[in-house]
């Protein structure tokens, strides 16, 4: 069972973006709310204690490549870290740049600030780009980010250390190609 979980985690960036599996109401709620996507998706640790298909879960899981730092708590930009892309960033969670595709494109400086090349024909479950003009948003500068008033007024304390494992440069490049 542990080997099966490791196998699933190796395909994180691709499987979470595939649109083939049925979607839970919880995942649909995240995808429909830009603020949940920017500030909670794959940031908040999963509260489930039973085994489940974590690629279809909006929460972060240990070792998951899509897991990311909380932009409300950690000061980092939506600019990809050049050292992380080479697999040599020594700053870790203290790095001022984003680590990985999900951390980069779900950052409030980037999420839905550019049009999707597929427009309304996009079939990705998780797409970082807007599909209709009404989905477009202005970039938000964060130091660290504060969510817009009301939507996420209370920030839950992390249930575990916020140092998710990061993905390799090859995985990032593959996921970025799939996302664009």
Automatic annotation (TrEMBL):
InterPro entries: Unkempt-like, Znf-CCCH_AtC3H23-like, Znf_CCCH. SMART domains: ZnF_C3H1. Residues 1-10 have a biased composition (Low complexity). GO terms for molecular function: DNA binding; zinc ion binding. It comes from the Eukaryota. A zinc finger (C3H1-type) spans 75-102. Residues 75-102 form the C3H1-type domain. Residues 11-21 have a biased composition (Polar residues). This is C3H1-type domain-containing protein.
